[in-house]
Amino acid sequence: IEKRHHIGGNCYDYVDADTNILVNLFGAHLFHTRHERVWEYVQKFAEWVSYEHKVLGKVNGKIVPIPVNIDTVNALFDLDIRTTEEMDVWLKK
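The chain above was modelled as a monomer; its predicted structure follows.
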């Protein structure tokens, strides 16, 4: 039995009356699945908002992706590496 005034436990949102912004009362909740059947099922109950987590770091005044990848190297060294083979060649220099 729910003890709160809403269902869903800690997965509860409301629209703030003053700002009209959707607020997650207990913090953001992320849903993950790799199973198409599960994804099709949960979509029956709510409209979902896409979310992509990106971590950026500031290195020598430049904002770059973390963990380090080809895009990071390109940004830091002003390069145009496009493939892992090109990256392997650059790393061996």
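The chain has a mean pLDDT of 90.
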